Amino acid sequence: LILIICLAVDLDEDRPLASRGLAVLLIVALWWLTEVLPLTVSSLFPIVLYPILAVATPGALASKFFGGTSFLFIGGFIIGLAIERWGLHIRIICFVVCNT
């Protein structure tokens, strides 16, 4: 409903893509607040909706969403999950405590 309303009304005649971008922003913000979908899923909707609504090109979005810093964090999270999964954090703590 929000998408239809925002697409029907132009906020600025000089920038017609502004209302489309606002529609996507409001939908994603509403889904984040109500948690209808998991946050990880709803955060990826701009990547899908912006090219469909011609707000931005996929290349421009990819450079914003998938920069070097993002992959650095994702790699760190994956390593952290692997350490926790295999109990390596407990082994490291036992090693440090036993050797001090």
Radius of gyration: 21 Å
User: Helix count?
Assistant: 7
Mean pLDDT, to the nearest integer, reads 83
User: What's the total number of strands?
Assistant: 0
Largest sheet: none
Helix content class: over 70%
Spatial shape:
elongated
The residue ranges in which pLDDT falls below 50 over 5 or more consecutive positions are none
Strand content: under 5%
The SSE order reads HHHHHHH
Q: Report the span from N to C terminus.
A: 63 Å
Helix and strand composition category: mainly alpha
What's the topology here?
Elements: H1 2-8, H2 17-34, H3 39-42, H4 45-52, H5 58-65, H6 68-85, H7 88-98
Question: How would you describe this protein?
Answer:
The protein has 100 residues and is an all-alpha fold. The protein has seven helices and no strands. The radius of gyration is 21 Å and the shape is elongated. The termini are far apart.
Keywords:
100 residues; 74% helix; mainly alpha; elongated
Brief summary of the model shown:
This protein is mainly α and 100 residues long.
